[in-house]
Task: structure prediction
Amino acid sequence: MSRTFDALVSEAEAVSVDGWDFSWLEGRATEQRPSWGYQRTMSVYLARASAALDIQTGGGEVLAGAPKLPPTMVATESWPPNVAKATRLLHPLGAAVVADSDEPPLPFADGAFDLVTSRHPATVWWEEIARVLQGGGTYLSQHVGHSSVFELVEYFLGPQPEEVRRARHPDDERRDAEAAGLEVVDLRFERLRIEFFDIGAVIYFLRKVIWMVPGFTVDQYRDRLRELHDMIESEGPFVAHSTRFLIEARKPV
Result:
């Protein structure tokens, strides 16, 4: 027997959304993974680095999964609950966590790192990345691409203008990286299927990924949520598509 709308809403509103761990969605939503395997790829680069910086580390979960960290490993994060979580997770591994506003400048010297990484950065300050990289150093990141999960965004917000749909386009990121003096040596883009199996999964996702529907609250969107709940109950999972791209950029010697 399916659970009621009110029960699903209450559960999803009560659960913590700290950190960047989506395990609560197991059995409630699925998302295709990019073919390149970001954590696996990042781990290879970390293993051969001497000093690395992970920008916007979230709760540190992705970085903590690397089997070997370089002798100097630093992570930045801006949201206080995530700073605390990342500190607990990463300090035992020998990584320092720095509370940072995610606004320039990065609190590090010029040429401080031979590797900079980031998974799903909310903002990308290319000139700062180029500044803190050593000559010959590498930026490796998986970015959220343009129009990601826009089926869900536009369900709540209506059709979005073209400039909003194009934001985070990989071609624009390449241009901005090159304008900062970096050489883009790899750029791979994929569109990936997402399925939400109940309205609780939708609520949890929108509470956690706060930029999808800015200011989202259940009270504000209760009518649309109830309509979506009924649609999932009658027609099956709500399907959306995420976009991801892997970008590797190098600072010339």
